[in-house]
Amino acid sequence: MDFKQDLITTIHQYGVTEDSLEKLNIGLKKRATAILIPCLFEEFKRPALIKTRDVLRNLRGLNELVIALSAQSAEEVKEAKAFFSSMPFPVHIQWTNGPSVIEVLKTQERNGLDLIATPGKGWAVWQGIGVATRNSEVVALFDADIRTFSLSYPARMLQPLLDPSHGISYVKAFYSRLSLESNALQGRATRLFVGPLLTSLEHIFGQGPFLRYLQAFRYPLAGEFAFTRDLGMNLRIPCDWGLEIGLLSEVYRNVRLSRIAQVDLGIFDHKHKEVGQNPKEGLQRMSTEILSNVLRGLMEHQAETLTNSQISTLEVLYKRVGQDRVKQFGLDSAVNNIPYDRHEEELSVQKFSKILKPSIVNFLKSPETQQLPCWARVLSCESNLQNDLAESGLSYK
């Protein structure tokens, strides 16, 4: 393990001591904490969520577990409630697309607020933040499909925030994405798209403050993060596959860099997406939306945008850097004796390179995107909406 520190404080996993459940439980009793899991009902039929539940059951002093659930019927929501019935702390099942929730959110049209977003993780996260921050000072978010979930995940994510003396407001996870079955490298969107993209943009624009910030994160697309209530209340939430990059842009806007940390969670595996056969599928579609969020962040934080000639330069640079990364990951895999399909990785870089120009052109025609307003903004219009939303999310009872 290296000792490197950079712009963002890095919490390494040295492997000298085990993460302490007792220490975590003591911390949870000192600062009101919620765990938020955005979830599709289908995850209740898979072993990953069972593993997560069984690990979380060991926590004592957790203020609340919030499940931001997308379900098709009240019966599915009741099944979810029964699934978590043995937990030693309160569990709030928020039916994010329930009829009563839709009704409550539509009432805000009178205030000029559009809160009915495209169903997905972003909308679930926005609702979950609203529910969780009613009574908790700290919130940690984990996805529902983590196959390697262990005590170290909440312990390491939360400890920097449970002691206010550290001065941390936001914690982002990073990890080694390895397949449980083969040990092969995963995380292609990060390794083969975002990494080479940011390096290429740095060649074009130089080491601007926002680009340097994004590059300081070892896994910018990690879906696991934790934050304080005051930060969570001021985050606008993107509603597309650029959620993670978009949130990093929001954190940059709201928090001093000295109050941000990233933490090593070790080995990590969850569901994988295919690259897809066209730009509207799989990781290609995801990367298109990630690219838009990166470019929007450059506009907001560096007042920079790509010209036509720079778009062509980016295409050439990205492909070269991507091919160099393929060679590097190939050597890394060979020395670690793990499988690596160089040809498939090269094909992925080719597919990603082809989405750059059309995606950028489309973005420049319409750089605005749908973002759910931060909760501080919403509450300035309707001070009781958090409670109304939480109550409507329980209407399956």
How would you explain this protein's 3D organization?
This protein is α/β, with parallel strands linked by helices. It contains 15 helices and ten strands. The protein has an eight-stranded mixed sheet with strand order 1-9-6-7-5-2-3-4, sandwiched between helices. A two-stranded antiparallel sheet has the order 8-10. Helix 3 links the parallel strand 3 and strand 4. Helix 4 runs antiparallel to helix 15, helix 7 runs antiparallel to helix 8 and helix 7 crosses helix 12. The termini are far apart.
Top keywords for this entry?
397 residues; single chain; alpha/beta; 8-stranded mixed sheet; globular; 13% strand; two-stranded antiparallel sheet; 10 strands; 15 helices
Describe the global form: globular
Q: How is the main sheet built?
A: 8 strands, mixed
Low-confidence stretches: none
Radius of gyration: 21 Å
Structural class: alpha/beta
Across the major sheet, the strand order is 1-9-6-7-5-2-3-4
The arrangement of helices and strands along the chain is EHEHEHEHHEHEHHEHEHEHHHEHH
Q: How many DSSP helices? A: 15
Quantity of strands, as a count: 10
Mean pLDDT level = 95
In whole angstroms, how far apart are the ends?
50 Å
Question: Beta-sheet strand percentage?
Answer: 5-15%
Helix content class = 40-55%
Summarize the structure.
The chain is of the alpha/beta class and 397 residues long. Helix content is 48%, strand content 13%.
What's the structural blueprint in terms of helices and strands?
Blueprint: E1 9-11, H1 21-30, E2 33-40, H2 47-56, E3 64-70, H3 74-83, E4 91-95, H4 99-106, H5 121-132, E5 138-141, H6 152-162, E6 170-177, H7 188-205, H8 209-216, E7 225-228, H9 229-232, E8 237-238, H10 243-254, E9 260-268, H11 282-302, H12 308-335, H13 342-365, E10 371-372, H14 375-381, H15 385-392
Parallel strand pairs: 1-9, 2-3, 2-5, 3-4, 6-9
Antiparallel strand pairs: 5-7, 6-7, 8-10
Helix pairs in contact: 1-6, 4-15, 7-8, 7-11, 7-12, 10-11, 11-13, 12-13
